[in-house]
Amino acid sequence: MAETREFFEDYMPKKLVDKPDLIKTNASFRFDVDGAGSWVIDLKTPPGNVHEAAAGEAADCVITVAKADWERVLDNPGVAMQLFMTGKLKASNIGLAMALQKILG
User: Fold this and answer.
1) Is the preceding omega at residue 47 within 30 degrees of 0, hence cis?
2) Where are the domains of the chain?
3) pLDDT tens column, 28-56
4) Is 42 helix (H, G, I), strand (E, B) or coil?
5) What SS3 string covers 46-88?
6) Is residue 4 within 8 Å of residue 33, measured between CB atoms?
């Protein structure tokens, strides 16, 4: 199983370096992962940035999910829609949330 902290601290920053075209998304995403913490992936300013979110930090799309469910998404991004439909994953902006498939995949 993928680990949440490792994803935000190691995997995603490296991915932004390896795939600079992700910055074209031009949005920021805050992930509130219950049981793990909150992180922001900022794709507005090159080369992108991933950091722990400050309390109440604004973002264009806020994803709220439990740690175990988020780690299921990391292992299998296709499960995100199922979690969304059952209310286990919430997104403040559905359009931007759909862009996450490209970012996570």
Assistant:
1) yes
2) 4-104
3) 999 999 999 999 999 998 889 999 999 98
4) strand
5) CCCEEEECCCCCCCCEEEEEEHHHHHHHHHCCCHHHHHHHCCC
6) yes
Question: How far is residue 65's CA from residue 18's CA, in Å, rounded to a whole number?
Answer: 27
For tokens 């913490």, what's the residue?
Answer: 37
Kindly tell me if the per-residue pLDDT of 1 is higher than 70: no
Tell me the whole-structure pTM to 2 decimals. 0.93
Tokens representing 100 are: 């996450």
For domain 4-104, the CATH class is alpha beta
Tokens 């862009």 sit on residue: 99
CA distances from 3 to 28, 70, 71 (A): 21, 9, 6
